[in-house]
Amino acid sequence: MSETTTLNSKQREEIVAALSKLRIASLLQIIATLIIAASSLSLLGAAFLLSTMEVPIARIGVFIGVFMAILVGLVMIIVAVYAFLLPSAKQLAKWKPAEFSTASKLLRIGYIWGAAILILALLLIIAGAISINLGTVIGGLAVAIIGGILFLLGYIGNIVYFFKLRDTFNSTTFLVAAILLIIGIFIHLLQFIAWILAFIEARNIEGRISSGLIQI
Questions:
Q1: How far apart are the first and last CA of the chain?
Q2: Cα separation, 61 vs 57, whole angstroms
Q3: From the centroid of its chain, how far is CA 17?
Q4: pLDDT digits over 20-69, tens only?
Q5: In this structure, what DSSP letter does residue 85 have?
Q6: CB-side exposure of 28: number of CA atoms within 13 Å?
Q7: pTM for the structure as a whole
Q8: What is the DSSP string of 26-71?
Q9: Of the candidates 115, 188, 116, which has an alpha carbon nearest to the alpha carbon of residue 152?
Q10: How many helices (H) and strands (E) does the chain have?
């Protein structure tokens, strides 16, 4: 990256805002992952603890505590994706449509439509289970497959987004983050590392653009 800038003030503000959203999204993903991982591990201890408790209220309290912690983590992921990640990609797509529009569209298709279809599938499965209607349950599972495929497109959109950030800002860190997301489909720990790298690099580039040190 050059040490001079060709961005006007409006462009600089828009790009910095987009990177700021990505930075916040990454941070929320990191915190949420830690919360969910810690809560999941605590279930092992809770399982032993529950077996030693004779007071039902104590057992319920432990269960509610773990459940609420996991719920907080899930809510943070939802906020990260819908309030920050998607708007970040959309904002950069307005600046450079040729580079970011595909990533933005994939993210929206996967994380909006895919998620909506998965929720519909869950409702169908629940309704079928309650009414003991096997056809409804099977239909819900079929819908879930469609929603899962669309949701995967959103994940792919995230990978494409990081690759495009790499190309635009000549960032090796975003390249590594994108590769980690690809491998992270099979090794989930690498997704966590990818978001750490995304947070660091988004903050770095954001600061350099704000200082007028980057030419694009």
A1: 8
A2: 6
A3: 18
A4: 999 999 999 999 999 988 887 776 666 666 555 555 565 566 677 777 88
A5: I
A6: 20
A7: 0.86
A8: HHHHHHHHHHHHHHHHHHHHHHHHHHH---HHHHHHHHHHHHHHHH
A9: 115
A10: 8, 0
